[in-house]
Amino acid sequence: MCPRDCHVDRLADERSLCHSGRHAPVASVFAHHGEEDCLRGWNGSGTIFFSWCNLRCVFCQNWDISQTDAGRACTAEEIATFMLQLQEQGCHNVNFVTPEHVAPNVIEAVATAVPKGLRLPIVYNTSAYDSLRSLELLDGIVDVYMPDFKFWDPDVARRLARARDYPEVARRAVTEMHRQVGPLKMGPDGLARRGVLMRHLVMPGMADDATRIMAWLATEVSHDTYVNVMGQYRPAHKVEGRESYVDIDRRPSPEELAEVRAAAEAAGLWRFAR
After folding, report:
1. Does the structure show a pLDDT above 80 at 206?
2. How many domains does the chain have?
3. 2 found inside a domain
């Protein structure tokens, strides 16, 4: 189900690091107007935010959702109802946020919602710490994959997210996502219909990591990869005011953001999100 491979029986409601049992923990459901233009459109992206991310990023800005018991466990029928309600509100897609540890629940919910009239594109908004087996099960179900490739250095991933294998897992996951749906394609209305929308959160002092990620995307995935170079990092959760994380206890500078964008362009990437 997830790269941590905890060996618990989720069907029997057993739990491990992600604190999730038989049913998926849903923290919030709303029309999100802060996503990329091609997702939010004019009516918003229909976001379903799951609790208990399978990473433990020390800088997480949503830690009160992603690393706590926010929300409640919801059945497939309940999640399907949320999806249909978002569709009725006019949302342009259903956007599953932090779904890595509940991929089977996502499949179950979509299978419940489609016979009831769901017709929106499915967006899989992920940290890229995804099991290859789960992604293979999602083939033909997810329309838009939106992974955030965070770190290239395994030691950095271990220190900041408790997942030394993250870079290897992310490369494997993004490659599989691209195999399934290819580069991002828009409809005539400018909204995303199918493909990979790649995110990278620029962090202070880590431009070298970002440069390597951009080079890998251009050479090993596709020059046509649609990329959002994100500049909204800020010290949060366990970082702010902590001496042990003083190196990332600041926002990235304009120069660092420009360096990452220039590295992406130098690598051959040309499609950037707004």
Report:
1. yes
2. 1
3. no
| DSSP state, residue 18 | T
**Dihedral pair phi/psi, residue 109, rounded to 5°:** -70, -40
Instruction: With respect to residue 229, please indicate whether it lies within any of the assigned structural domains.
Output: yes
pLDDT band, very low/low/confident/very high, at 1 (cuts 50, 70, 90):
confident
In-domain check, residue 228: yes
| Residue 45, token pair as written in the block | 């992206």
- Residue 156 is classified by DSSP as H
In a domain, 126, yes or no: yes
Q: Which residues pair with 75 in a beta bridge?
A: none
Tokens of 37: 């233009």
What is the per-residue pLDDT for 16? 67
- The CATH number linked to 267 is 3.20.20.70
pLDDT tens per residue across span 137-163? 999 999 999 999 999 999 999 999 999
3-state helix, strand, coil in the chain (%, to 5): 40, 20, 40
- Calpha distance 252→224 (Å, rounded): 26
With CA atoms as reference, report the closest residue to 235 among 225, 218, 247.
247
Whole domain around residue 204: which residue ranges?
Answer: 10-272
For 217, what's the count of Cα atoms within 13 Å in the CB-facing half-sphere?
A: 38
Identity of the amino acid at 223: H
The answer to whether 2 touches 56, Cβ cutoff 8 Å, is no
**Predicted confidence (pLDDT) per residue in 180-198, tens digit:** 999 999 999 999 999 999 9
Q: Which residues contact 64 (CB under 8 A, 6 or more apart)?
A: 70
Which residues, including other chains, have CB under 8 Å from residue 27's CB and lie 6 or more apart?
49, 50, 51, 65, 70, 71
Q: Does residue 117 contact residue 84 with C-beta atoms inside 8 Å?
A: yes
